[in-house]
Amino acid sequence: MAADQSIATLPKRIQSREALVGIIGLGYVGLPLAKTFTKGGFRVLGFDVDKQKVDKLNAGRSYIKQFPDAVIAEMRGKFEATDRFDRLGEPDAVLICVPTPLTDAREPDLSYVEKSAEAVAAQLRPGQLVVLESTTYPTTTRAVVLPILEKRGLKAGQDFLLAFSPEREDPGNATFSVSNIPKVVGGLDGPSTDAACALYGAVVPQVVRVNSPEVAEACKILENTYRAINIALVNELKVLYDRMGIDVWEVIDAAKTKPFGFQAFYPGPGLGGHCIPIDPFYLTWIARKYGMNTRFIELAGEVNTSMPHYVVTRVAEALNEAGKPVKGSKVALLGMAYKKDVDDPRESPSFELLELLLKKGARVTYNDPHIPSLPRMRHYPDLEPLASQPLTPEYLAAQDCVLIATDHTAYDYAFVVKHSRLVVDTRNATKGVTAGREKVVKA
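Structure (tokenized):
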């Protein structure tokens, strides 16, 4: 079959559910995507470099808390995982869902995207659709991925199709997931956009077609930069209002009663997750390539990255009021995940808090019902391995300070306050606690 005929028949294969969908990266983005496509009637071949993950999935077991084993078991029959990237020629559509972290110099690290594109290029055949989902700066699909895919002689638009469709996953969100979030799609050309829209349109309720990959890439960066800037605003106001003796949480609750012109964002101990702490720096980096400094975005980044230091200062002040120095004090961190009710520690500010407290000489332990032991973190290679401590009355009473970093719903905050000597609350988690209120310090 000629290449153009293969491309021409792809929409029909998608419509009939004959198309095999390949997904590179079976993490917090790729696995929900695999579930959505299998539920929509497609066969899915998932690729991951971690053989342990692959073996677990093929045995019907999950390694992500939001995905119980039963969900993986339901996918079996239409889903297979593999670490053999020489099978990338099998799928009709290949979706790339790999991390896009920052280097130590806070510049984009596209190594995972580039390696994935090289793996696809090695097996690329006429008629395939390739879609990048990893969050990145505008022009990545055209300037980085496209040349890699074309270097073996096949041409985009003639032999294969290429598009960008940003992931919009929100781990732990029980209301919204990939199956009911509108999917933005921008292809390299008309046929690429058509095919990608047909693919996603078969499994999601709404596809938002845009004119280019650059628009789709810029859309995702805008979404997360918008959140980062507004979080920076309330973080800065938290510091100011603390000094003024004003409860910023009460201020936000009052402000959000306005039915227009205001959206509530909330302060915290710092930004976490794989998107909001990282994506704005992708935008500032590409802006410099175009001779522009994004001062507003960079200022927001400075505010947000300073928050763990502010929290540790508040801990030191609270301990000082109790007649104790930070050095030698026992501090319990409640919550190591970057957000409530997930087992995802990526970019969690709790690791920064842990390191800062240890450097000041504190004796730090932690509890997190979702993270039984701390994984090795790229930015914190020197942290000693720790295991979650049982949250007993005896454990809490033995601490000089309990620092609430993540407001998991599993915690009984009245219980925590009752049995602790001092509680520093960065999430307003103890809002409803009345007994022992004098032991709580907001940070």
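The first helix runs from residue 3 to 15. The mean pLDDT is 94.
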